[in-house]
Amino acid sequence: MAEQNVTVALDPAEPAPPSRGFLRTLAGASALRNSMLLLVLAGVWLFFYFATNGTFLTQRNLVLLALQTSIVSLAAISAVMLIVTRNFDLSVGSAVALVGVVLALLTVKHDVDPALGVLAAIAAGIAMGAWQGFWVTRIGVSSFIVTLAGMLYFRGISMIATNGATVAPLPRSLTGLATGFLPPAFSIGAILVATLGYASLRVAEIRRAHGLGILGRMPPAIFRAVAPAVLAALAAAWIASWQGIPYLVVLVAMCTFAAEFLMRRTRFGAQLYAIGGNPEAARLSGINLTRAIFWNFVIAGLGYGITGVALTARVSGAIGGSAGLFLELDAIAAAIIGGTSLSGGRGRVLGALVGALLMGSLNNGMSLMNVPTFYQDTARGIVLLLAVAIDQLSRRQSVRR
After folding, report:
1. Domain 2-10+26-180+246-374, CATH
2. Residue 276: pLDDT over 60
3. 197: left (phi > 0), else alpha (psi -120 to 50), else beta?
4. pTM of the prediction?
């Protein structure tokens, strides 16, 4: 029963009583919260389109934007999963740097097969996640302190292992991960298939909710759930027609699908939301909080590994001192901007990706306008502050109701 309640609370197609009209439903608090970020992103893109004389919305620049956003997007996935349970990870950037050092040392210094090097690097990431999960769940140290310490000694170990030097270049089979593209025709076909699959799942979910009596009117809910995906698919197909989809973007899509399925379609995901919503109630309902949070950190470690391999392949080497610097802040900011609540119990991986895309768009657009970097940091900080303020106001309104 708890799992059903969690799913309903997080459904972006949150129902309204049948007596309310479609426009009023669309303007409701939940619908407004979920659509506002897309409207803001559209407004930012429109502004930069005119400010850069159309350069921002060219296919080439949008592909570059996708590549620039991919690393933050990968890190934001695990950030959402941890914040949902009221935990934080400040070690992402340093852990990703250490994973890159492991990969580079094995493949460059010791001539290990690239496939084995990738597996070893991902295993190192999982070990780091399990190590931090042990301290949080078994010793009882706050995740903030554990990951803050990890941020320091993971970075230190990566510097010690390389003596502060850059380890490069990586084998071409690895750098191709960051520079390769799927063929345009295959890319467009994959986009269409993925969109149809997503739409089918969402429609089936809405029909199930309607059959259970949770949902009043189906057409408005289906429109809100499917329309953004269709628009995104059309835009993606147009972009992919230029050169295809970058492999890094495909990796982000695969990780996003896996995380969304885990959080939205499994008992484990329902447990994570229940823990974040009310830990004591989750414990009394029979959820093993220690085990769930530990495995959540293990999954975060898997994210370290995947993100570290992707980042190292993108720069074709490991730079222990600067690789992944401030990545943890960007990942947390993307998650919060995307609607993940700092109070736990609410958050979507897809929202975090839109949040990462929004921040990346600000950086990319202002770079095209030759705006100094400190202005870019200022803009990102203001966006983050507004996102947190909106989250707090929406929670207050829901409590008043």
Report:
1. 1.10.3470
2. yes
3. alpha
4. 0.85
